[in-house]
What we know:
heterodimer, A: alpha+beta, six-stranded mixed sheet, B: 13 helices, globular
Amino acid sequence: MADLSIDIRSLVKRHGATLAVDRVTLDVRRGEFFSILGPSGAGKTSLLRMLAGFETPDSGEILIDGRSMAGVPPNRRPVNLVFQSYALFPHLSVADNVAFGLEMKRVPRRDIDARVASSLELVRLGEKRDRMPGQLSGGEQQRVALARALVNRPAVVLLDEPLAALDQQLRQQMQGELKSIQSQVGITFVCVTHHQEEALALSDRLAVMHQGRVAQIGRPQEIYESPATHFVAQFIGTSNELRGTLSDHHAGRATLVCSDPGLSRTIRVAVSDALRPGEPVALILRPERVRVAPDGGGTGFDNELPGRVETLRYLGSEWHCVVRMNDRQSWTIHMPNHAGGSPPWRAGDQVSVQWNVSDGVVLPLS
Amino acid sequence: MMPASPAQNRDRKGEARGALCWLLAPAVLWTAFFCLLPLAVILAVSFATRGTYGGILWELSLENYRDLLHLLYGRIFGQSLLLAALTTIVCLAMGFPLAYYIARLPPRRQALWLVLIMVPFWTNFLVRTYAWIFILRTEGLMNTVLLKLGLIPTPIEILYSNSAVVLGLVYGYLPFMVLPLYAAIERVDRALIEAAWDLYADRWSVFRLVLVPLTKPGIVAGCVLVFIPSLGAFITPDLLGGARSMMVGNLIQHEYLIARDWPLGSAISIVLMALVTGAMIWYFRAQSVVDDKRGAS
């Protein structure tokens, strides 16, 4: 049995008539950076608040370090929460904020000073220990909030949308810092976020939640490359899709008959045996797995569809190209910038969009 | 655009200042007329002498203030301070939980509760205080009910005592405590309470280390709003305290209306005001020193 930090067993929480958390079962291993990802209203905040002890489950069980948390109030739990709004005490200095938990636990004064100093060092705020929270920037406040949790050496640090309040640049910088701090201290992190890039970049494993349930749990690569459901595929990253039904199901290969009359070509796809012919499905293609070639050129790829370049966006390292497939849908395709910034296509160009069977994932529509 | 010349700038500033003067004029006049003028009259009268038939003789002296050094007056001042302080403490102890409860209700219910707290103000204070006599007296509502229920063997003799005065004052001034407290508590971010709880604080520590410091302006405002009128109260001690209880307010009323010694009454008023003002100044000075030390932002 793996060394578990958190073991959640068929947890249920109702908010009035709605099921906020619906039979969620998952476990988090010791020292892992685990993210709970989902759109707002997916139940991830409820789940986090039940872990912290602010909400009580209607049924199911939470074990932290093998100990049941039923009836244990937040102040007796071996977890600390980093609030989305940071919730720093405005009347206490940075050092006093960080020392708060240790003082409540009646740690001797000398130890408190040493631990506060080292945890402020860890988040590189050693010189700002006497500042008030109001005098700090958003990023600094975030780091104080993190230090205030880490200093207690909890079994688990819970993070509620940790980077949501920061601007783009700071966000990326803090992502790196969060990850490196976590691997330094080796404490289990459970991070709730609706930001999929953040979850992919930070997590060892993540759970994608949808309507109160766990849609998929896995490593970032598994979630992105082999999404388990249509929802996961759509929610994580950009996806281009073709809808239709399957025929000629044979040895893991099949033909997708597009339901869209404008795209009436036969598409070769790889499928799992669980899918039945005639079942409505969607083929998911990631923007970087599709190639664009001049119209009418030879292919060498398993599949090919015609399209017209609509817009091109230059992002420095990449071109993002929107290709109109028919009057109902257009695809986003990412191309590396090889040609020193000169655009690979012009708007209006007729092109051929190509990919191999292994580039796509077929998922049932439900 | 041409940069404005210094002269033009000065003109513009002058104009702005002129406009400001006109805008402030009503407020300044109001303050002067309704606050400073009566105060000046009282101050002047406090140095005058009582005429034989209760008139004011403008023979200026410090005689009235010297009279106040008498032990009797000291006792009345002391008792007033004590009763007002007690009232403030009881109001705070009762008001904080109530204000906290209201501030944590959904907004609609909050409004209902706030209205309920204001409802007593729709009835005259004197009438409401008389009602308390009917509740508290020996054959009153409270004793009748308690005796009937067999909770007490003999009637509680509470009317016409300092306890009754404090009870009446608490009753009268509790809303002045609850409203500023409510406003302060309502502004406290709930996440801060949860953060303290998450950081191993028990309920008492959350209250002492987070809630109280963050609602301090409300606590101070509530205490000032209760303490000052309690100190000067005269209807409540007059009706509920009877002959045994006298507060400064009664003393002033007595000097003005019964003894017809306006100069002495004025002197007592001035001393009372000086005491309260001095206490306030001392408090806020001490407070700003603490805040400076903290480097408040």
